[in-house]
Sequence to fold (219 residues):
Amino acid sequence: MSRSQSQPTRESIVAALTAPGGPFEIVRDEIGGVPMRLYRNAPRSMRDVFLATRDFGDRPFLVYEDERLSFADVHDRVAWATALLTDLGVAKGDRVAIGMRNFPEWVIAFWACQCIGAVAVTLNAWWTGEELVYAFTDSGARVAIIDEERAQRLAKYRDRIPLVHALVVRTQVALPDTISWEDALRRHAGAAAPPTVEIAPEDHSTIMYTSGTTGLPKG
Fold:
C-alpha cells in the first residue's frame, strides 16, 4: 500500500475540516461588497471570544510577578470595567486609548472595550509625549487608560489632548485631571456581567499603530 493510500494528506484533512458540516466549515459571502471566504461557525466578535472563556473559572488567566488572576477574576474585573466605561459615556464605536507597561490592567481594559463594542487604541509605551499626543488626536480617543509613567509623560501636553477622561492605573500619587482606575473600578464592583451589545463581525475592534520609523505612526 502506498503512503498516499495509507495516510491522509494535509489537503484531505483541510478539506474534511472545512467541508459543509465540518467544525471549520467555510462559506462564501460578501463583506462591504468584497467577496470573502468565512468560517460559518466562527465567533461573531471579540466579545464572543472573551465571553466563551468564562467556563475556565478558577484556572489561571494572568500571572504578573506575585499576582495571580483566574479567568473568573478577570471576567469580574472586565464586567466592572465595562460598567465604569459606560458610566463615563463610552459607547459602541467610541475610541479608548490604552497605554501602559505589561500590567494586568492592559488586558482587562482591552477586553472591556471589546465587550461594549468600543475601539481599543493600543499605544506604544515607548512613544514620546509628542507621539502619544498625535495618536490621541489622530484616533479620536476621548478616554484613555494609562499608567503613571504615561500620565507623567503627557502632563505638559494636557491642553493639546482632546481627552474627556484619563484613567490612571497603579498610580502612587494624585495626578491632576485624572481618575484613579482602581478607585473607579471598586465603585463599579457590583456589575455582574458586561451589558448586552450587538456587535457584528465587520464592526471595528482595534486601532494599532505602526512604529513610525519613516514618519508619523499610521493607525
Q: What stands out?
A: The longest helix spans residues 71-87.
